[in-house]
């Protein structure tokens, strides 16, 4: 009888997280079915083949593993029914490949989105669901099977998207990268044919070219303008400025993490938080400038507030979907107000929450060695650090943080 085991693959992604998968073994031969989820190795219990409770989404992700094992079990029973007890791994793979419902790109995408929703990956859902919608619009109600995703189809899709003119080059690249991702996942689940794979670097294959984006951070003089600006009774502008500076003072902290900042996370002159993007714990020194921002939101004696900023007031910290929705609305509001601030202060550069991250990197570039920046940003590759600037850790980089903020 075939055996099924949940496993953690040994090769990490760029964020240093390891992929979850299911290994199916029959007659001493195995095939691997990827789950499309990644975790830190410390959260994996290899003996029990489950995610430890230390992972913030352990319950949901363990349910995903159980659901996938149940689905694969059904495929094995179907293989036994079709080929007999001594079916081969190739029989199992071919049976899954021939399943018409699973051979649909759109059906498989829906299943992928259901898995994301179960894992509470709302940010990825928000960015990727519109990509499938765009592909469906181009299909005009017709289904799309994996064996129809050929080089000519991809080239025609690119022409259609450019001709429509509603999205730019980067968005077109995002559509292609999503198709590539889903196709690769379907291959790992034996639901698409590797031989027909249209992407790659060899002649005749589709190479996805990501256009360079220009994100110019503010200089020190422009940051000083923000720090010294007085917007009077325009509290919405004061608040947007404070949020932006909070991010900048913490080395370009992502806006989702800024909005979720809690009072309990401030201890002994440091701020401790778990990064939303990769779940790593980060410790940052609280500068005088940051403390000045925080003091404006400190509740009066006797009042109780979980979050520093009001955007998540009244939201259950466990309600991840509502937190995501509120964060998205708040970010849109901040960005609109930051544009107004830039106009008032005669700052000609684009102002947004994300630019706070690039601003820190811009000012830090000639003050902090690249290797130290790589450590600060928690990047696996130095090349990522040189293109993007990120988050601080502990003692030996506090001076670097001060050097940028107090320059």
What this model shows, in words?
Residues 213-402 form the Tyr recombinase domain. Belongs to the 'phage' integrase family. This is Tyrosine-type recombinase/integrase. It comes from Aquimarina algiphila. Keywords: DNA recombination, DNA-binding. With 407 residues, this protein is mainly alpha-helical. It has 2 domains: 3-196, no CATH class; 220-405, Orthogonal Bundle (hpI Integrase, Chain A), CATH 1.10.443. The protein is built from 15 helices and 8 strands. The chain has helices at 58-83, 89-98, 105-118, 122-139, 151-164, 169-188, 220-228, 235-249, 255-259, 288-295, 320-344, 353-364, 370-377, 382-387, 398-405, and strands at 3-8, 18-26, 29-39, 44-45, 50-51, 266-267, 270-274, 281-285. The chain has a 3-stranded antiparallel β-sheet with strand order 1-2-3, covered by helices on one side. α3 packs antiparallel against α4 and α8 crosses α12 (353-364). The longest helix has 26 residues, at 58-83. The protein starts with a strand and ends with a helix.
**How many distinct folded domains?**
2
Shape: globular
Residue-averaged pLDDT, rounded? 87
User: First CA to last CA: what distance?
Assistant: 68 Å
Count of DSSP-assigned helices? 15
Order of helices and strands: EEEEEHHHHHHHHHEEEHHHHHH
Q: Report on the biggest sheet.
A: 3 strands, antiparallel
Integer-rounded radius of gyration: 24 Å
| Spatial ordering of strands, largest sheet | 1-2-3
Structural class: mainly alpha
Organism: Aquimarina algiphila
Keywords: DNA recombination, DNA-binding
InterPro entries: Arm-DNA-bind_5, DNA_brk_join_enz, Integrase-like_cat_sf, Integrase_catalytic, Integrase_recombinase_N, SAM-like_dom, Tyrosine_recombinase_XerCD
Family: Belongs to the 'phage' integrase family.
